[in-house]
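Could someone model AN7 with this protein?
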Amino acid sequence: MPFRPRYTGLIDKYRDRLPIHDDARVISLGEGNTPLIRLNNVPRDLNKEVDIYVKYEGLNPTASFKDRGMTVAVTKAVEADSRAIICASTGNTSASAAAYAGRAGITAFVLIPEGKIAMGKLAQAMMHGAVVIQIQGNFDAGMQLVKEVADHAPVTIVNSINPYRLQGQKTAAFEIIEELERAPDYHCLPVGNAGNITAHWIGYCEYSSASGDHVTDACTFCKGHCPYGGGAIVGNRPKMVGYQASGAAPFLRGHMVDSPETVATAIRIGHPQSWDYAWAAVKESGGWFDEFSDEEILAAQKLLAEREGVFCEPASATSLAGALRDIRSGKIPEGSSVVCTLTGHGLKDPDTAIKQSTAPVLKVPSELDAVRKAILDNMA
Ligand code: AN7
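Reply:
Sure, complex below.
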């Protein structure tokens, strides 16, 4: 069998479609190339003829989709001789920024809401050597502070208002198209700061545009002239569907929300930075937004873990909760193909997982009889 080249990350793979110079020092941890898993049991349980795939972004190097954007943002920061990066974060951006800064040999400053980020994410930021700044405020307050302080200190912002982040994140759409040999009919995502739904729409649009002309307002990052050339032509683009937690659902309210609350701390965001872009993605694609209670989100997380063997964090499960509701109601019709992005790994937030689990943990004496009885009593 011929050797295939080693996979060395998404910048090397998609260099012709990314704003990276040939001689750039690429800061990569081998991100991207994540599995697209076709669900078996969940559609059967639904009794609906639909193809549901989950794009398991939790298998990126720091266990979330943020690495796609961070490899590009940090590569560009290093190219610009920046010695420090900064972000506000609900957790995953801080973990990713910390890791890529460590790899690059620069400093990461991360602003996180005190007491409101999952333990795994805090552990990552600390282990990778970031300067962790806990604020007595939420993500939105942190984001505001980051924007202000960047005018007064030599730091590069690596939140998704940095356009290189979205350039990296658009590659998830490329991978999906290459694997399915077309775009799905529906692409479902959890929405917080709204960068990822925007980035996916950019990716799908680039792939469907033969000339490289930008076909939507969502592509205005490149101001109408795509320097990377168009992608192969695919015949379709998906409807983009954004799902939010009810306590943090500005896109459903139609305005910013000041005190967002949800168990899905990753998307505890009330003032999304990519507001206009996300609206453009949803409207141009013919998609929609919807919202889910914390209970519904956690139920979807558990269903996916139990029935399909895929463990994602609560925020990520919002995409599946949404797809299931919309498939059941017929809003997503039978015969459709649906991709749900699972943005982060379940191990990010073990506390929430253990708290909500109803799985029996049996305590028995360390004896053969007791263990055998436990098995026989619990056979399905
Ligand atoms: C698991 O880490 O905003 O709509 O600061 O971690 O692109 O913001 C995280 C966002 C979904 C929402 N799922 O994506 C941060 C941060 C997970 C996330 C989102 C986030 P966007």
